[in-house]
Amino acid sequence: MLTFPASAKAFPVTLQRNSFSPRLAARAGDVWRAMQDVVVDQSADVGWSPARYESAGTMFVVRSMTLTHTREVRFEDRLVGRTWPVRARRDMLFTREVRLFAGAELVAAASQEWAYLSRALEPIRAGQDIYSAFLREEGFPSVALPEAAALPGLPVFTFSFHTWHLWMDPFGHINHPAYVDFCDEATSRVLAKAGLPALQLSPLAESVHFRAAIGAEEQVTVEAHLIGTVGEDAVLLGHRILVGDKVCATAKTVRRLFGHGRDAWRTAFGG
């Protein structure tokens, strides 16, 4: 059974060495970056390069994204990505699917919602030039987080940091995959403080809803708390990313820790 439209071209994907943990497994945020590269490549392939968006005074920004990892991406994997638009709403919000393959093997899948904006971050309506370039393909399932058994009432852990100017993306703010890095760093710090091997953290899925941009020299606070269990050895974590009292993003991550079960997670997170 074909898991992507026949019209969805394959684009090669290269992860750099610094995308991999000491286990030579790609970090979740870098899988998100790989999928962003696939979308940019597909956009350029149909005539909408970053330079064209800039000249048009428009851009697409991610409003939400949910990603599942079929397995971890390994250092030796030769990757290709495919992506296609699925639907449009009010000519401003666009949903697309992205798939990442190692050879013929699906290793990660994502559903994204993008907003079409002016360079002043104001919503604008896409014209026929967008619709004629990005042909929608329906009939393929979207991605969802796995079901979890709730663990209510556990404490929230936080850590804070200041953003760097050198972290800013072409739009002058923190690029959306970095939010996944922030969530995983918050989780890793809780695990390490509990004496657990944070470098054994392994991603299964994540979902992020973006609310506000983060710029340079801003103090960011990241929250992490355990909100459920998934299967025999994985957990669901909840996160908020804030600047002051402003919630810039909310997220959920599904993670396992190699060599440790759910009891270790509950001990580390106060359960």
Question: Care to describe what's here?
Answer:
With 271 residues, the chain is an alpha+beta fold. The chain folds into 2 domains: 11-133, Hotdog Thioesterase (Thiol Ester Dehydrase, Chain A, Roll), CATH 3.10.129.10; 149-268, Hotdog Thioesterase (Thiol Ester Dehydrase, Chain A, Roll), CATH 3.10.129.10. It contains 5 helices and 11 strands, in the order βααββββαββαββββα. Strands 1, 2, 3, 4, 5, 6, 7, 8, 9, 10 and 11 form an 11-stranded antiparallel beta sheet that branches. A hairpin with a 3-residue loop joins β3 (79-89) and β4. α1 runs antiparallel to α4 (177-193). The radius of gyration is 19 Å and the shape is globular. The model has no long low-confidence stretch (mean pLDDT 96).
State the main characteristics:
271 residues, globular, single chain, alpha+beta, Thiol Ester Dehydrase, Chain A, 2 domains
Compact overview of the structure:
With 271 residues, the protein is α+β, with helices and mostly antiparallel strands. The protein is built from 5 helices and 11 strands, in the order βααββββαββαββββα. The protein folds into 2 domains: 11-133, Thiol Ester Dehydrase, Chain A; 149-268, Roll (Thiol Ester Dehydrase, Chain A).
> Helical amount among residues, as a percent range?
10-25%
N→C terminal distance: 43 Å
The CATH topology of the largest domain is: Thiol Ester Dehydrase, Chain A
Per CATH, the superfamily of the largest domain is: Hotdog Thioesterase
Overall shape: it is globular
The mean pLDDT is 96
- The CATH class designation of the largest domain is Alpha Beta
- Low-confidence segments, given as residue ranges, are none
The helix/strand order is EHHEEEEHEEHEEEEH
Count every helix, treating DSSP H or I runs of 4 or more residues as helices: 5
Number of domains as seen in the coordinates = 2
Structural class: alpha+beta
